[in-house]
Amino acid sequence: MHSQTPLKYRELAAGAVKDSQLHRALGMMRDKVGRNAVNLYNQIAPGQDSRRAAKAVRSRIVDNLDVVLETLTENIRARGGQVYLADTGADAVEYCLQVARRHQVRRVVKGKSMLSEEICLNPALEAAGIETVETDLGEYIVQLKGEAPSHIIAPAIHYTREQVGALFAEKLGEPYTDDPPSLTAMARKALREKMLTADMGISGGNTACAETGHVTIVSNEGNIRMTSTMPRVHIVLLGIEKIAATLEDHDILLRMLTRAAAGQKISTYISYVGGPRLPDEPDGPEEFHLVLVDNGRSRILADPDFREVLHCVRCGGCLNVCPVYLNIGGHSYGSPYCGPIGAVFTPLTRGIGECSHLCQGETLCGACKQVCPVDNDLPRMLSLLRAKLADGDPKWDVLPQSRAAKLAFTAWSLVMSRRGLYDALRGLARMGQRLLPRRDGWIVRLPGPLGGWTRGRDFPPLAEESFGERWARRNRDGRDA
Amino acid sequence: MNKPQRVTLFMQCIVDSCFPQVGEAMVAVLERQGLTLEYPADQTCCGQPAFNAGYRNEAARLARRFLDVFEDAECIVCPSGSCVHMVRHHYRELFAKEPRLLARAERVGARTFEFTEFLVDVLGVTDVGASWHGDVTYHDSCHLLRGLGVKDQPRALLAAVRGLNLIEMTRSDECCGFGGTFSAKYPEISEALLETKLANIQATGAGAVVGCDMGCLMHMQGMIRRRELPISVHHIAEILAGRQ
Ligand code: SF4
User: Measured in angstroms, how far is the CA atom of residue A318 from the centroid of ligand 1?
Assistant: First the structure.
């Protein structure tokens, strides 16, 4: 399990903010995809309202999730697929291992699954002696490197092509090149070989449709088609919330998803899978499993304040406009889901106290909400998570985080609730600030927890006379005159 | 809202204690519009710092007090978008389970306006008769822009200032990295955002940056001073009051 502390977060972030190559790569995502997403939504009838329509669709589905899940399950079973509802990540992993053992699987090819990162599936498969190969080019690169993805949609965004060239030369024994088509061809050759010889395929799903009983997987590389049809056994991992009720809902979401994720009106490949090969079909797996993973989602579902986060379609759009993500990159978050969505989703599934750095390491600027294809109010939820950290919440097993901060804010609010007291204290502070080092009037070093500010920025001093005092003087003088 | 005769001033606490001259500039502009101004002397802070840090009970204490102080005002004007966003939107969240307070908060929230929003949308004024010579660039504060939807109003006001040339910067709507306690808690990240912002400001070649919220402006000015950059920082009220 990945884990991360506030200190580690600061440390990793401090390193990442100096990584200019990372910023160039992320800047491309920001300018090409992130900032254009909203324009693309507006091209869909009913234009401006497409986000609200998508939100309405998602909320209707999530509010009726039990029924939707049942319909999907029935339809997939009717086609000969097997469906398993996993309570925890460990349950899901164990199920995959059982299936693999039953079929004496030696090699697994995988594609498109952040969920498998969430439940730590790869290490478990490897520990069971099963070779596990990512087939998404980006994911293949980070896997060869022994790293985790740094972006929900573009996992290897933090690499230059020169770095990929060196990596391939080292790991695949190919001559060095940094020519993207040649690199792609190398990966293709290596991956084809794996796909042709794998016993089992595992993929995630972008969405599913309960009405028709299929899972939808979008990709731009064609690897999903092979992963899902060539091996004897295929397993799809799907979060319980990522389902559309009807084909109509499914289409609305798909259109928004590809626009938000990659700035595309539609992706290059869309695979619909929902069962084993039928007798008259030329290809497809002999056995098909759908593993629906809960892993903390029903707890979120039960809380009306946070239920909205389950509307997320994992497009990664919020990452591409988040100034914090764009500066610190995905790895700083210490969680497979990074950026604004990760800052809300990860604490809710992994523990709010444990992930306090994610709840607090954002500026609440609201850019994520503005771009989200389902209008997710992430800033609202971030602020609510902070409230749980401040006061504790037994329902979420959160203990109050800092007694000192609580005390400080209580004292501050008490002072601020009486103007006389506030004026008196400001008078004292005005005298006290004379002791602080200054330059051109501004303070260059603040004491205590405020010291972070003056690390690289000066701080304004309290004015000799507040506005209130000036106003009172003006009125007095005005009257006297 | 009908055009009011009397306006009640709501000073952001940062303006009150650190930048009183910004408050006075706003007063000058409003008085030139022929308005009678009131300033409830016992006002303090709307509670936003506590709210954003998660201390909701503490924020609610100040929010209740804010309602007591401003309840009878016909029209409230503030030189900060984020404070107005707090009063207009977050009070509703704070009092969601207390119907009487909620109703009061909604009434007061509907009568509270950010300064440029008030001039343009309520008074219908864009030319306030100001002059200011030079090139300036405008920073969109997050809460003003995304919380209140105020984007064109300050630009229209600036466009009408004689002698002023507005040059838009790249991504004027990207956060400057202030974020309240975030700026002191995660200085490395906050500074990185600020550096990007300053680079975008400098790339315009303008010698001045203008905004509508002293939170962001003191943040930007903090680094500008530390690095001795040749950029001056102004609240829009100072420009509209005709000062240079
Ligand atoms: S929160 Fe919205 S923008 Fe972010 S990943 Fe989810 S759907 Fe996409």
Answer: 5
Burial of A391 from C-beta contacts in 10 A (0-12 / 13-18 / 19+): middle
Q: What is the predicted pLDDT for the residue at A44?
A: 86
Q: Quote the Cα angle for B124-B126-B127, to 5°.
A: 125
| DSSP assignment of B223-238 | HHHHTT-S-EEEEHHH
Determine which residue's CA is closest to atom 7 belonging to ligand 1.
A312
Is residue A341 in contact with ligand 1, taking CB distance under 6 Å?
Answer: yes
**Percentage of chain A surpassing pLDDT 70?**
98
CA distance A172 to A186: 8
* Cβ–Cβ gap B17/A426 under 8 Å: yes
**Which among A241, A253, A256, A312 is the best mutation to test ligand 1's pocket, defined by most ligand atoms within 8 Å of the CB?**
A312
Beta carbon pairs, A and B, within 8 Å: 197
Say yes or no: A460 contacts chain B, CB-CB below 8 A.
yes
Using one digit for the tens of pLDDT, what is the confidence trace for A283-316?
899 999 999 999 999 999 999 999 999 999 999 9
**What pLDDT was estimated at residue B244?**
46
What is the number of alpha carbons within 13 Å of residue A59 lying toward its C-beta?
16
Is pLDDT of B28 > 60? yes
Please report residues of B whose CB lies closer than 8 A to that of A416.
Answer: 13, 44-45, 47, 62, 65
Helical residues (DSSP H) of chain B, grouped into ranges: 13-17, 20-32, 48-53, 56-70, 81-85, 91-94, 99-110, 115-117, 142, 148, 152-159, 182-185, 187-203, 214-226, 236-240
Residue B173: other Cβ atoms inside 10 A: 18
The predicted-structure confidence for A27-55, as pLDDT tens digits, reads as follows 999 999 999 998 999 888 777 789 999 99
Distance from Cα B175 to the centre of ligand 1, integer Å: 19
List, as ranges, residues 161-190 from B with C-beta within 8 Å of A: 171, 173-175, 177-190
CA distance B146 to B216: 15
CA distances to A242, A246, A270, A283 from A68, rounded to whole Å, are 10, 9, 22, 29
CB contact under 8 A, A389 and B50: no
Type of residue at A261? A
Average pLDDT, chain B: 96
CB A15 within 8 A of CB A340: no
N- to C-terminal Cα distance for chain A?
Answer: 74
Measured distance CA(B170)–CA(B160) in Å, rounded: 22
User: Which H or E element spans position A431?
Assistant: helix A419-432
Tokens of B89: 């939107």
Which residue's entry shows tokens 């397993």?
Answer: A235
A438 has a chain B CB within 8 A of its CB: no
Please indicate whether, in this complex, the C-beta atoms of A468 and B41 are within 8 angstroms of each other: yes
In this structure, what DSSP letter does residue A454 have?
Answer: G
Q: Alpha carbon B30 to chain centroid distance? A: 15
Which of the four pLDDT bands, split at 50, 70 and 90, describes residue A330?
very high
A406 contact B CB<8A? yes
| Distance (Å) from the alpha carbon of B197 to chain A's nearest alpha carbon | 10
CB of A344 shorter than 6 A to ligand 1:
no
Length of chain A: 481
